[in-house]
């Protein structure tokens, strides 16, 4: 399970899961409670024992594995344009963020506060915990000149609670993009390793 391609595929699946969930929120205003809970649990899992442990089980990134598999198929059939744009935007944002030690420090400090909030409320889906996780994104990623532009239903995008969930999920995606790069992931892999990534995603899904 701990091969390079498995680590890269799991992390990349996290990026694509974030993109898929952001698209759902932007268009419908809703995702399942378990999805926001597992997202925040993953964000706050700061010392995982493995890439699989980041997600507390491969089943918690099944949406991302399916989306990634579709994206790696010929011509990316089955994945809408917005999801692909969000995934590429997340990867681009992470690359810029890691070059800003001041923002990385701000993110670390904000995450520590969110960990404290989660311990206090005892829930990964409490409104205060979601708001705190969203603030982690605001204090770091949102300070970059490059922004991920989310499109969808204006009534949902203007809802503060939906906006907080979107920022939280984008933060999860950025964290996964960081893990992907740490595992040796590069953008050119989307051209040179599509079949290997797709096959690995298939294999990971077979045990979910």
Automatic annotation (TrEMBL):
It holds the Pfam family DUF489. It is found in: Cytoplasm; Cell membrane. Its main location: cytoplasm. Keywords: Cell membrane, Cytoplasm, Membrane. It comes from the Bacteria. InterPro entries: HflD, HflD-like_sf. The keyword Aminoacyl-tRNA synthetase does not apply. GO terms for cellular component: cytoplasm; plasma membrane. It is a peripheral membrane protein. Belongs to the HflD family. HAMAP family: HflD_protein (MF_00695). This is High frequency lysogenization protein HflD homolog. The gene is hflD.
């Amino acid at each position: 399970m701990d091969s390079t391609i498995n680590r890269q595929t799991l992390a990349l699946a996290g990026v694509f899961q974030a993109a898929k969930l952001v698209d759902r929120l932007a268009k419908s205003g809703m995702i399942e409670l378990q999805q926001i809970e597992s997202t925040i649990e993953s964000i706050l899992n700061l010392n995982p024992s493995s890439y699989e442990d980041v997600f507390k089980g491969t089943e918690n990134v099944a949406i991302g594995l399916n989306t990634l598999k579709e994206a790696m198929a010929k011509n990316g059939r089955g994945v809408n344009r917005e999801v692909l744009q969000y995934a590429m935007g997340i990867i681009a944002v992470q690359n810029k963020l890691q070059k800003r030690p001041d923002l990385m420090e701000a993110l670390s400090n904000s995450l520590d506060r969110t960990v404290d909030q989660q311990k206090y409320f005892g829930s990964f889906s409490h409104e205060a915990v979601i708001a705190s996780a969203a603030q982690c994104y605001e204090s770091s990623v949102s300070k970059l000149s490059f922004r991920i532009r989310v499109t969808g239903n204006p009534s949902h995008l203007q809802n503060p609670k939906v906006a907080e969930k979107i920022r939280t999920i984008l933060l999860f995606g950025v964290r996964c993009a960081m893990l992907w790069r740490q595992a040796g992931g590069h953008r050119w892999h989307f051209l040179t390793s599509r079949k290997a990534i797709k096959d690995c995603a298939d294999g990971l899904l077979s045990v979910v």
